[in-house]
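Design request, C-alpha cells follow.
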C-alpha cells in the first residue's frame, strides 16, 4: 500500500479531521487511499500551537489512512482563504500544491516503521 511520511503534529491533525490539505512542492496524480506515517522528527513550534487539542502524538508509526481526492496549485486567493484557518496560518503556501485529503481513518499500529521521502510502498501483514 502507498504511504506518505508527515511530521507531527501535522499527521495527527490529518487523521483527527483538523487538516484536510497536505502541502507539497510537487503535485501528485495519485487518487486513492494512502497511509499516513509519522516522521521521527516533530515540528516543535506547531506542537505548541496545537497543544490545546490534546492529541496523542507518535513518531515512526503508521497512524491512519486517508484518500487523496484532488491536487490543487495554490494561488494568492486560495492562500488567503487557507490563512484564515488556524491549522494553515503559519506560512504562505503560494506556488505549492494542496493535496485534498478525505475520509481520515485512524489505525492502531505499535510497530515502529522507518519512513522515506515522497510516496512509498509498504507491505501490510
Amino acid at each position: 500500500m502507498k504511504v506518505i511520511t508527515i511530521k507531527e503534529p501535522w499527521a495527527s491533525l490529518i487523521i483527527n479531521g483538523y487538516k484536510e490539505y497536505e502541502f507539497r512542492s510537487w503535485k501528485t496524480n495519485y487518487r486513492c487511499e494512502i497511509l499516513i506515517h509519522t516522521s521521527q522528527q516533530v515540528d516543535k513550534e506547531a506542537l505548541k500551537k496545537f497543544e490545546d487539542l490534546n492529541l496523542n502524538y507518535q513518531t515512526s508509526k503508521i497512524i491512519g489512512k486517508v484518500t487523496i481526492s484532488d491536487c490543487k496549485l495554490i494561488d494568492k486567493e486560495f492562500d488567503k482563504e487557507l490563512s484564515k484557518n488556524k491549522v494553515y496560518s503559519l506560512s504562505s503556501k503560494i506556488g505549492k500544491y494542496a493535496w485534498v485529503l478525505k475520509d481520515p481513518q485512524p489505525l492502531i499500529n505499535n510497530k515502529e516503521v522507518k519512513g522515506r521521502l515522497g510516496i512509498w510502498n509498504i507491505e501490510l501483514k
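Comment from the thread starter after seeing the answer: thanks! The mean pLDDT is 92.
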